[in-house]
Task: inverse folding
């Protein structure tokens, strides 16, 4: 089973009322482990086993300044877009999310910073890390963007073409790439960032979701991207589950912020189990062999759902 991670790079410097309220509430209720997990901040971490191989995805902890690539990679990420009122689309908070990271070889070889250490290779220097939006098939529908309102069992469904999700790179040379509720193929993205001379990447995009240029329906939006860089095979598709909410006026289906967060976690788990088919990384295949991988998957599937929660 692929690992999913709630990315919260937008809360690296300040925590949204939603996240602060939920962590405080779970601490008061005695859910200390849940609160601790909710406080971890991850960016998408990109590495590889060398040129000519597939880009590998893990997570970068913004607080600890460390990275990890689980045996089955990280394929499902989450985030939030927040707004107030109905006049404008909801947007991710500064410094933006999702965030993207890649490390130099010295970083990748340092066991204090990287897990596993001395396994992966730094990306090529001065090379463009790019992305494309990928289509998702759910039931008979194939779309770039799906929606679930958070009511009942998780059930992502197509939405109207007037719903637009944008990823934006701000600053000099900035751009915006868009998908809608009716787009249904590979949609061009852009260059996330050019790597440094030592293969490093550190940047954030901003996500916005709107309906006819105004606020979107509160709930959860699912989209997928694939990362690419010249000289490497593209990554497996990554899935993002973004919650959209107005903290001052939660939609009626959410009794409180904790209910919203619980639904967000359920949506990510559903995507993990339904969409993100695991593909073990090369180092585990080399060290453990296929039989060990199968056993690890069975143990992971038998583990309680809360064991997968990461912020």
Result:
């Amino acid at each position: 089973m692929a690992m999913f991670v709630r990315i919260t790079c937008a809360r690296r410097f300040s925590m949204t009322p939603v996240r602060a309220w939920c962590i405080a509430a779970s601490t008061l209720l005695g859910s200390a482990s849940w609160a601790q997990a909710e406080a971890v901040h991850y960016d998408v971490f990109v590495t590889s086993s060398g040129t000519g191989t597939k880009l590998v995805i893990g997570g970068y902890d913004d607080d600890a300044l460390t990275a990890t690539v689980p045996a089955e990679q990280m394929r499902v990420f989450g985030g939030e877009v927040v707004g107030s009122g109905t006049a404008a689309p909801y947007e991710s908070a500064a410094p933006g999310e999702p965030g993207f990271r890649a490390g130099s070889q010295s970083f990748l070889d340092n066991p204090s910073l990287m897990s596993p250490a001395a396994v992966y290779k730094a990306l090529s220097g001065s090379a463009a890390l790019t992305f494309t939006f990928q289509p998702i098939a759910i039931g008979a529908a194939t779309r770039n963007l799906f929606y679930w309102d958070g009511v009942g069992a998780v059930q992502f469904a197509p939405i109207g073409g007037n719903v637009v999700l944008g990823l934006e790179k701000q600053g000099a040379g900035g751009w915006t790439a868009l998908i809608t509720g009716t787009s249904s193929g590979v949609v061009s993205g852009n260059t996330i960032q050019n790597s440094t001379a030592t293969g490093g990447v550190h940047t954030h995009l901003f996500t916005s979701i709107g309906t006819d240029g105004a606020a979107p329906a509160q709930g959860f939006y699912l989209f997928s991207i694939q990362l690419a860089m010249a000289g490497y095979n593209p990554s497996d598709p990554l899935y993002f589950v973004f919650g959209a909410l107005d903290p001052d006026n939660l939609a009626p289906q959410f009794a409180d912020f904790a209910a919203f967060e619980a639904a967000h976690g359920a949506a990510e788990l559903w995507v993990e189990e339904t969409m993100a088919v695991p593909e073990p990384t090369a180092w585990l295949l080399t060290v453990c062999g296929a039989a060990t991988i199968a056993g690890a998957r069975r143990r992971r599937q038998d583990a309680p759902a809360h064991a997968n929660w990461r912020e």
The longest strand covers residues 219-228. The two ends are 18 Å apart (CA to CA).
